Amino acid sequence: MNNDFAPFSIARLPRIEFGSGALDKLPDIAAGYGRHLLLVTGARSFVESEAGARLFADLRAHHLSWEQVSVAGEPSPAFIDATVAALQASRFDAVVGIGGGSALDAAKAIAGLLRPGNPVMDHLEGVGPELPYRGPTTPFIAVPSTAGTGSESTKNAVLSAPGGFKKSFRDDKLVAEWAIVDPDLLATCPPALIAADGLDAFTQLLESFVSTRANPMTDALARSGMMAARDALPALHRQQSAAARSQMAYASLMSGICLAQAGLGAVHGLASPLGAFFPIPHGVVCGTLVASATACNVAALEARDPGNAALAKYAEVGRRFAMQKGLNGVDARRFLVDTLRRWEAELDLPRLSAYGIGEDDLARIVAASRGGSMKTNPIALSDAELTHILASRF
Ligand SMILES: [Zn+2]
Q1: What is the C-alpha separation between 85 and 71, in angstroms, rounded?
Q2: CA 269 to centroid of ligand 1, rounded, Å
Q3: How far is the CA of 33 from the centre of ligand 1 (A)?
Q4: How far apart are CA 145 and CA 181, in angstroms?
Q5: H or E stretch including 169?
Q6: Using omega within 30 degrees of 0 as the cis cutoff, is the peptide bond preceding 129 cis?
Q7: Cβ count near 41 (within 10 Å)
Q8: CA of 110 to the centre of ligand 1 (A)
Q9: How far apart are CA 62 and CA 176, in angstroms?
């Protein structure tokens, strides 16, 4: 426990409704902003589900009207601009995003740009003029239907130009007004998605916990999120249960809060070019790399910076996972890495080669991984170390 409270800042969070049945609160919450909504959903599943049918009936009963946009795959800047242009004539009182990370990120970017109307490239980090975003936003309500990205509690929308880049539109003003987190929505999530998204959430918790920008408040949330995931992730992958759904929805929500406040690390640094250059889902990148990247961070810290606070934190997670308070640091960290390796196998995470990634691609992936998340990794990793992380998962 860190008793030395160095100064820290906590940026704005959404108001949060969490729990089984929370979706039923959406119509009243949305009606608080007005009568005309934009619904941004994933390609199909929610719209066609029982929960979707119930929600639409409920919205009608509340005399709400809406237009609907669906998002297929990870959203591109061109998709955001075209959607904003097509909807300019309508005046929406709120934007409701319902779906996985792609739907929520698209909804967040659209809510940010509907009123200003300018292209999203004006603001994307690292690839355009990076003009400051001034708003105004349209009030945004986020309803996650997967447990993974934590987009419901973050201030950035990740957009992908296929074959080119994967970058964030980021501003405190983009944070959702409300996050409505209803674990029941995970009931129809297939096991492969539970695995990849759940390991994304876990990676976000672990990376923000050992981040150079971690603070005591995000640490507390990250700890509770990691403990929830430890118990629930393999269980939910094997078999659906209300308890495991609720724990994973909680872990995901905490992961978004922590990453927005404390930043991430090497896995997400590598995820940016991997997701930009190859058709590999974000959750799969995280799930397939987290064990190797954690092993690499631990080895680098033990060799070059043994006094680094992150080493004690990795050991703390290992002790909590092993439920052995007396475990020494080296053994506790080994237990953590071994657990992550076991998850990688048990949850059946695909390897990078399944997406056409090979030896020839290493140099350009590593070269493009240095921005953003990599900067808050607890230790600077060499090109050789990053290459080794990737090569271990071909
Ligand atoms: Zn992530």
Answers
A1: 16
A2: 10
A3: 30
A4: 8
A5: strand 165-170
A6: no
A7: 23
A8: 20
A9: 22
- The whole-angstrom separation of Cα 185 and Cα 258 is 23
Query: How many Å apart are CA 239 and CA 217, to the nearest integer?
Result: 33
Decide: 132 and 33 in contact? Cβ < 8 Å. no
Cα–Cα nearest to 270, from 144, 381, 161: 381
**Cα of 83 from ligand 1 centre, angstroms:** 25
Q: How far is the CA of 122 from the centre of ligand 1 (A)?
A: 24
Q: Write the pLDDT tens digit of every residue in 313-370.
A: 999 999 999 999 999 999 999 999 999 999 999 999 999 999 999 999 999 999 999 9
367 CA distance to ligand 1 centroid (A)? 20
Is the backbone of residue 268 left (phi > 0), alpha (psi -120 to 50) or beta?
alpha
373 is written with which tokens? 């998340």
Give distance in angstroms: CA of 204 to centre of ligand 1.
6
Query: How far are the Cα atoms of 173, 221, 222, 256 from residue 260, in angstroms, in the given order?
Result: 13, 12, 12, 6
Amino acid in the structure at residue 356? G
Q: How far is the CA of 36 from the centre of ligand 1 (A)?
A: 32
Distance 200 CA to ligand 1 centre (A): 5
Q: How far is the CA of 268 from the centre of ligand 1 (A)?
A: 6
- Tens-place pLDDT, residues 129-154: 999 999 999 999 999 999 988 999 99
Q: For the chain, first and last CA: distance in Å?
A: 38
0.85 exceeded by pTM: yes
Length of the chain: 394
H helices then E strands: how many in the chain? 14, 8
What is the sign, positive or negative, of the torsion defined by CA atoms of 183, 184, 187, 193?
Answer: negative
Cα(258) to centroid of ligand 1, in Å? 11
Distance from the alpha carbon of residue 390 to the mean position of ligand 1, in angstroms: 17
